[in-house]
Design brief:
With about 575 residues, the protein is of the alpha/beta class. The chain has helices at about 1-15, 20-50, 55-105, 110-115, 115-160, 160-210, 210-215, 220-270, 275-320, 385-390, 415-420, 435-440, 445-455, 460-465, 485-495, 515-525, 560-570, 570-584; strands at about 340-350, 355-365, 370-375, 400-405, 405, 420-425, 430-435, 475, 500-505, 530-535, 545-550, 555-560. α2 (about 20-50) runs parallel beside α5. The longest helix is centred in the middle third of the chain and has 53 residues, at about 220-270. The structure holds adenosine-5'-diphosphate (ADP) and magnesium ion.
């Protein structure tokens, strides 16, 4: 446990390395501030004890000048600590966020199946914020507090050791109180954050589902659900403010008692002629200057807890090794003809609750370059899964897939995926312009190439009819496209990408018959000269395929052309007449 903690702290410190100069300057400034603060009470004492009574007015004015200069210096240092110190944190945050983002990008589909987007977001944003606060304020808090504590106590001992001793006895009580109460506050604040997360996600789902809620006239039900979260949120806020109230009340009382003891013990000492009035004044000033670091330490306890918890989650995430990576010495997949072979391919999903779930078993399939293969089967039969194995979105559990005779595990992921294009039922468009979305297929394509692709996808005329043409924004804040229009954008994307292997996964299922018929032509053009896997819901769309396979969870049931299967296959007949009839 302890070793682990050290490990985290060590790793945390390693992020300071690239910015060590900034860190050093930050620390030097912090120390200067401390020293100036510590010197002030001492200067007061010298003035009152020596300079004024002895009428050394020249020195008095000189000292005033020095103090002025010191305060200007202090102002500069304070500015530096606040501005550049935070920048140090921001830079570290940027480094850590970049590392995390790169790491997330390497993860496979399985990882994203098992991790909630909201969680990843909160790690990238909230956790990192806490880490950065710790990174910036942590060292400063400890450093400044220690110097101030040691400095002010040394001064107190010089002034009057008996008084200092009494005050020193109170320090442990104060520290224990502050650390304990701050920890409570930290716990309450963590609970509050959790509830904040809950209420945010509840609100998000209610608002994004508001159309459904209205359609079912379920607003009351939604309100009830919301009130529950809202109440919990309110209660956890109560808890937090309660902890905060106790903390502040306690700290302020303790602070008062320090003042009280200076007066009380100081008063006794003055009665005994062991101390002068001026010394008592100086002692009082020192008490004020060491209460501040004590509060700072409390602050640090909370920062450390929150920041380290965030950092731990960060490290945990970084420790998840991507399960699909380039093999050592993996080659580029180049000049692909497009022969695709599945041999004895078996695949299971890893399910967190149910364990392994076998979806494909012992699939053997050969598709020659340029041919089109239709895949049909019941819903949930594994058609999508089969296709996702080709670009290695998931890794086969057993068996091999080869492209032009090369095992896909022996080539780099990037080159493999460059050669495989997928068009799916729901098209994801990035918020941005239509141009950006089409260029996603090949970010280096020229304007002419892009327009050519749009024309081939039968999209150009529509785009030109929009006021902003290719610069029209799509997505939440932009125009809404119909399913067919979105699908055309994805076709244009793939045309730009120009992959030798193409997968059409129920690409037209969401469209009405008329749009489907129109888009079908675009697909036919797209498929020309490529090895194409077509998963179709409506069998009419794959009648012309060179070969059709019928699969379910037991594997490939039948193989043949449309005509052959219509004659020989029961399942195919059922699928065909079933869907054809349902279309009537
Ligand atoms: P089809 O495309 O033929 O409708 P899929 O390949 O999408 O079928 O799914 C096959 C089976 O695998 C289904 O039982 C489905 O529940 C399951 N499945 C699909 N995707 C995942 C996943 N990401 N994690 C776990 N199980 C999945
Ligand atoms: Mg599917």
């Amino acid at each position: 446990m302890k070793e682990q903690k050290n490990h985290y702290i060590k790793r945390f410190i390693s992020y300071y390395k690239p910015h060590w100069k900034l860190f050093l300057i930050d620390m030097v400034c912090a120390v200067l501030i401390c020293l100036i603060d510590l010197a002030f009470p001492y200067a007061t004492r010298v003035i009152l004890n020596d300079l004024l009574p002895n009428q050394q007015y020249r020195y008095f004015f000189l000292l005033m000048a020095v103090i002025t200069v010191c305060y200007v210096l202090r102002a500069l240092c304070q500015y530096f600590v606040d501005y550049w110190g935070h920048l140090l944190g921001v830079r570290m945050e940027a480094d850590i966020r970049k590392e995390l983002f790169c790491h997330l990008q390497k993860q496979s589909f399985t990882f994203f199946d098992q991790t909630r987007t909201g969680q990843i977001m909160s790690r990238l944003i909230n956790d990192l914020f806490e880490i950065v606060e710790l990174a910036h304020h942590g060292p400063e808090d400890i450093f400044i507090s220690l110097i101030m504590l040691i400095g002010s106590f040394t001064a107190l001992f010089v002034i009057q050791w008996k008084l200092a001793l009494v005050l020193l006895c109170m320090v442990p009580i104060t520290v224990v109180f502050i650390v304990k109460k701050r920890t409570n506050m930290g716990q309450a604040s963590r609970k509050l954050k959790e509830k904040t997360g809950n209420i945010n996600s509840a609100l998000e789902s209610s608002i994004s589902g508001i159309r459904v809620a209205k359609a079912f006239a379920n607003e009351d039900y939604e309100l009830e659900k919301f009130l529950e979260d809202n109440n919990e949120y309110r209660n956890s806020k109560n808890g937090f403010y309660k902890a905060m109230g106790t903390f502040h009340a306690g700290v302020e009382t303790l602070a008062c008692f320090f003042g009280f003891f200076v007066l009380f013990v100081g008063g006794l000492l003055i009665m005994n002629k062991d101390m002068t009035v001026v010394d008592m004044l100086a002692a009082n000033l020192y008490v004020a200057s060491f209460l501040q670091p004590v509060r700072r330490l409390g602050n640090f306890v909370e920062l450390f807890e929150g920041g380290m918890a965030g950092f731990k989650r960060f490290v945990e995430l970084m420790n998840v090794e991507p399960d699909i990576t380039d093999k050592e010495g993996a080659k580029e997949l180049k000049n692909v003809k497009g022969d695709v072979t599945f041999s004895h391919v078996t695949f299971s999903y890893e399910d967190a609750e149910e364990g392994e779930k076998e979806v494909l078993s012992d699939i053997n399939l050969t598709v020659s370059a340029g041919k089109t293969i239709g895949i049909v089967g019941p819903s949930g039969g594994g058609k999508t899964t089969l296709c996702h194995l080709i670009p290695r979105f998931y890794e086969v559990s057993e068996g091999n897939i080869t492209i032009d005779g090369i095992n896909i595990k022996d080539v780099t992921l990037a080159s493999l995926r460059e050669n495989v294009g997928i068009v799916q039922q729901d098209v994801f468009l990035f918020p941005g312009t239509i141009r950006e979305n089409i260029l996603y297929g090949n970010v280096n394509a020229s304007e002419e190439e892009m327009i050519k692709a749009a024309k081939e996808a039968m999209l150009h005329d529509f785009i030109m009819s929009l006021p902003q043409k290719y610069d029209t924004i799509v997505g939440e804040r932009g125009i809404r496209l119909s399913g067919g229009q979105k699908q055309r954008i994805s076709i244009a994307r793939i045309l730009l990408k120009n992959p030798p292997i193409l997968i059409l996964d129920e690409a037209t299922s969401a469209l009405d018959n008329e749009t489907e018929a129109k888009i079908q032509q675009s697909f036919a053009r797209l498929a020309k000269g490529r090895t194409t896997f077509v998963i179709a819901h409506r069998l009419s769309t794959i009648q012309d395929a060179d070969e059709i396979i019928v699969i379910d969870h037991e594997g490939i049931k039948e193989t043949g052309t449309h005509e052959e299967l219509l004659k020989t296959s029961d399942i195919y007949q059922r699928l065909y007449y079933g869907t054809e009839r349902s279309k009537l």
